[in-house]
Amino acid sequence: MRKRSNTYMEQENGQAKGAAGSEEVFESGVSAGRIPVLMYHRITNNKVTAKENWICVHKSNFEKQLRMLELWGFTSITFEDYELYLQGRIPLPRKPVIITIDDGYLDTYTQAFPLLKEYGMKAVVFVLGDRTLQYNKWDAQNKVPPATLMNKAQIQELQRHGFEIGAHTLSHPDLSKLSCEEAWEEIELSRLALKDELGVAPITFCYPYGGLTRTTKELVKKSGFRFACSVYSGPSSIGEDPYEIRRVTVRNNVAELALQLIVPQNLINGIKEALKKNRQIEIPSVIKNGERVNQVLPVHRQVGMDFRQQ
Ligand SMILES: [Zn+2]
After folding, report:
1. 209 C-alpha to center of ligand 1: Å?
2. How much is the pLDDT for 1?
3. So where are the chain's domains?
4. Is the domain 10-262 a CATH 3.20.20.370 member?
5. How far is CA 32 from the centre of its chain?
6. CB 58 within 8 A of CB 251
7. Is-contact 165 158, C-beta < 8 A?
8. CA nearest 281: which of 259, 258, 262, 263?
């Protein structure tokens, strides 16, 4: 088994470099304010069907994705590290990445954990507060097969290895569909349950299904969390809205993750939409001579061919 340094703090001993949102630009074009936040659910040793490829990544592809992150010079950090960086207590690594794994499946422990350890990486794992839930029964109506969840000892072991454990409500409801009182209970009681189990209150929350409203965001903030992850909503930079952090959905496909790391997600989404509707692509604005310039190109010119002929 390969032995690597487990935290970037062992690799860099300097003081914090500059304030949050520093415009230092890294080799890949990822700036300090643009830390990619990856979203995984299940890492499996079983065959992954096309239908499942948004929720399951095969163990072999997961390893290739980790190898790619390593080759490209990324260092995994947690939101707890990011918080320490914001407080000026530790520096950020040159190319940080945050790996998140949702729901607390047993395969996070049996499949993902050994590989992450082998690559000297760590993850932020979002678990439920209700430990009587032993499998993903909230997924039953979506025909997602049942999968066992981790127990308390396994979650504690991840924590001991420097993984961050974040809260994912008590029972995995769509918070945007609950009353204010029900949402508060799911948020606050999950925080207290994890504090009790882990001896330290979690600082990061994750909205099930990415379901959130302005009120749920306020409740998460009021509960004392410092960060909250969504799925497809929120600004692309984690510093802009700590309570709605957009994540990159990692599928069972290594090349797709490579593309997602190179090209900003909003540009990928813009191209997909434009191709679907055969309209113009809106390219993220750039600063030229001190002025923000919006760039718009017709889709067929942008991709070098005329899709209208097809
Ligand atoms: Zn979930």
Report:
1. 6
2. 46
3. 10-262, 267-309
4. yes
5. 16
6. no
7. yes
8. 263
> Do residues 195 and 161 make contact, with C-beta atoms less than 8 angstroms apart?
no
Per mean pLDDT, which range of 26-30, 217-221, 275-279 is the poorest?
26-30
Instruction: Please indicate whether residue 141 or residue 43 has the higher confidence score (pLDDT).
Output: 43
**What interhelical angle do 59-71 and 254-262 show, nearest 10?**
30
Report the run of H or E that residue 10 belongs to, with start and end.
helix 8-11
Question: What spacing in Å lies between the alpha carbon of 210 and ligand 1's midpoint?
Answer: 8
Place of tokens 């009021």: 222
pLDDT tens-digit readout, 156-191: 999 999 999 999 999 999 999 999 999 999 999 999
CA 139-144-149 angle, to 5 degrees, is 65
- In order, the DSSP letters of 207-258 are -GGG---HHHHHHHHHHT-SEEE-SS-S-SSTTT-TTSB--EE--S-HHHHH
172 Cα: distance to centroid of ligand 1 (angstroms): 6
Average the pLDDT over 111-133 and give the result: 97
**Range of weakest confidence among 108-112, 175-179, 257-261:** 257-261
208 C-alpha vs ligand 1 centroid, how far in Å? 5
